[in-house]
Amino acid sequence: MPFIQQAVQQAAVRQAVAERRPACLRELAQGTDRFHEPRRTDCPWCGSERLRLRLRTTDLVQHKPGTFVLEECLDCCHTFQNPRLTPEGRAFYRRDAQDGPGLGARYDAKRHLAIARAMLPFGEPESWLDVGTGQARFPEVARDVHPYTAFDGLDEGAAVLEGVRAGRIEEGHRGSLTELAPRLAGRYDVLSMLHYLERTADPREELAAARTVLRPGGHLLIEAVDPDSRYARLLGRWWASYVQPQHLHLMPLGNLLRGLEGLGYSVAAVDRRDAHVPVDLGTGVALALEHSLPAADQPWRARPPGGLQRAVRTGLTWGSAPVVGAARAADRLLAPLTRRTRFANAYRVIARRNEDE
């Protein structure tokens, strides 16, 4: 019976892909160059024109057509996508983002509890806005740590409305933080950005908008990818945290701290250890193996794979499972060490909004 159910599900997926294929191919017939802005010649963080190529890659998760470049500033070490995707391009590549091996489930209750507990030394907030909240899974968990806090969410997608319907947040604001900030000015004691800044067109505009939304004395909680992680050099294009083409900016910790202070924040806490997510080796191996497998059926592919191709892919996927499993086990085994070294792949910053002068 499970085999029959699986076969039926696979047939339904193939049918859904076949129905979407004509529209997707018509969109791609116009080319992918239109999804990119003109290449800039200076660093968006410090303005330096001393840039170097850091990474050239393709979409390793969904395998949609296109090539993406990350450049690094030789003066401030800021890494950014160049040429950057247009809003239309970001929408195209974010669509169907659950396909492929990716980074695994973004909902991690244990990790979310740890993030929420990081705010305990700063008192019980009355109001908290989670930016880039999606379906508001983080506020749902954080409420267990802060039971007297009113949690709201903000996201450009419709998922934030699902978060309201499910009772995970009290209010859902759909749109961008920079556009909604004037309407939400001075409303929140805490604003969280969990792996959100990397996906924004201008991180400093987002930080300034967050200051507008926070009350004086309120706190901004940030978790972000650390581009200085040694895993980035070790794994190259297979480093999971590059997440191309979704990540537009990778900010060294020092740049972010100086940027916050320049915008009227005081840095209250910095932590690399607890922000580390032990997925680098496992996801790197999964991405590399997926890249070498026969293509899966996706609506942006011109032809569906044949029966033999599907069978070979299934066999190789099952055959490589022990290798991926061993790499993921190594991530967990090494985590106590890697989170205390420069192999840590993320950082957490808590900053206090200063009083207006």
TrEMBL record:
Pfam families: Methyltransf_23. InterPro entries: SAM-dependent_MTases_sf. It comes from the Bacteria. Gene3D superfamilies: Vaccinia Virus protein VP39 (3.40.50.150). This is Ubiquinone biosynthesis O-methyltransferase. It comes from Streptomyces jeddahensis.
